[in-house]
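[READ THE FOLD]
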Amino acid sequence: MCFTMHLPWLVLLPCVVSAHMRGATSNTKFLDIQFLTEEDVDETIVLKVDSKRLANIRSGLEITYTSLPKTDGHLAQQTLRYVLHRYLLNQHGWLIKGLEPQNTSWTHQTQRIQKDWSSWLPSYLQKHFEAQMQRGTELSALAEMVAIIEDLVHKEAERQLQEIYEAMGKSTETVLDRSAALEVIDMYALVFLVARNISVADPVKNRKRLLGFRKKYHGFEEMHRWLEGLVEEHLTNSDSDSGVDFGRLKEVVWEVGDRYPEFNDQECQQLKRTLMDMEGGSRKPGRIPLADFYNKSNHNHWRFTESPEYLRDLGALDETDPQRPHVLLANYLSSFNNCLRATSLYAVCCRNPCEGLLASLEKEVGAPYATPDQLAALVANLSTDTMAKRSSPEKFEAKLLERLRSIGNDDGQVPLHGRLFAQWMHHAFPRECPYPHAAGTTNPQTPDEWMKAMGKSTAISEEQKQEIVAAYCPSDPEAHQASKECHAETAELPWSDREELLAVHASVTATVHGATKTKEADCFGWFCLARRLVPGLAILLWHRKLAKLRHGLLLGFLSWIGIALELVDFRVVVASGLLYLLWQKATSSIVDKIETKTEKCEV
């Protein structure tokens, strides 16, 4: 779906690499937002939000909020961001910068993401609402944060429209006729689609660039008709027949931001159908052989040029079969390379249909956990455009039901927001639910970020492409001379027993049914216990009669804390403890001998 993927001319379009627009010449921008200042954000925070609007947002947040695990009635920081991400993506199709889920790796974040989160809008807003959240009004605070983000998106669109007026040589005080208004909206679409700045210096050149955009953009006619419809809606609803003023066009560009994701969904569905047509060479559902991914793209308007290295970092490459790597359909579809960086606040990405399935389960369960039987019955009644309703758990494969029962915790409950259940959903809906890679095994980045970090292009060369097509197993191993490994492919999807939960403060692990479980609540149990033991331990450490044990007790306590926080390995602590005891015994024996000799000398 990425425009640069099948429309390489956009990369070379002169208008998208021109000088920055007015107001963006400074190298330092507040939170990396081009059109907004810190004062804009602060002013938006203090504005009174309509109570009815807040109630509607709160209602939309409530189901997901209720279903998430909490500690002392509060969500962890990572989970708060997850709620915001889910709402804004489902309601508007916006992937807000700083709320990206792909690189959080459940309970772990890379340094890049941690840095972004500490300096960007969600964190900035969170600081303003910390006190309110502590008073038990967390859901209301989340609703206000959503409203503020929505208002800031609209404010940024307004500023961007002002710059486009100037770039087109028009005044915001001028009332435009229908033709001129459509020209402005087309220019706004150009900037929106390629997420670049235009020069305000030469309106004549800008019009020529717009003309080139209209001729070369693959879907311009369809896009133009859609934009024209938005303008007509606002003209029809207007009381004035004299033309279109800036205020009316401002409302149109708000609609572009609010409704473009629906338009984008059509392109995403087309991409999905194209990828599904390429599945034929694999027995595994939701997977395209890498050789087919490159080879068959030469025969349609989609151009799949991402290199294996970039696909691997995106988490879109399945290499469990070394003879036949596959592209993961659901992972690829929702990955960063298919996102449209519409503004500095958000990107428009292909929506993840699995989140809709999860929302249905959250609504029915109304809690962070559910029994395997309950989930099997609920999932059996879910359907997608590629998977029919199963109607009853008996329609699931026996192995799939067995795995669902195996991922329960000590109480037999399955965490809805854990990696293992996400993996189970991938097996149940392989074309809709992305495969959840284990923490630290992927590094999703936009093409620009990846190229900057790696120092090379995300695209594969034609020579590399042909080497891959020749090196790996053919699409139809029965019709070609192929190795035994090619014939041995089964429909079974990979499975990992590693569990990771959503909350970032989860630290304590336990093994259940052979899987590593991360439990957020236990983490606070460790600290509660530590809080009670510290005073007593301090008395023991400084008691004169226990002076000889002081260092051992202190080291033991610190080691225990280190294990709880997963800072040190348990086996290393045990080995170190044994060495410490041996050293203590040896030194104690030497000291006793010296003391005995000293006593004899004194006698």
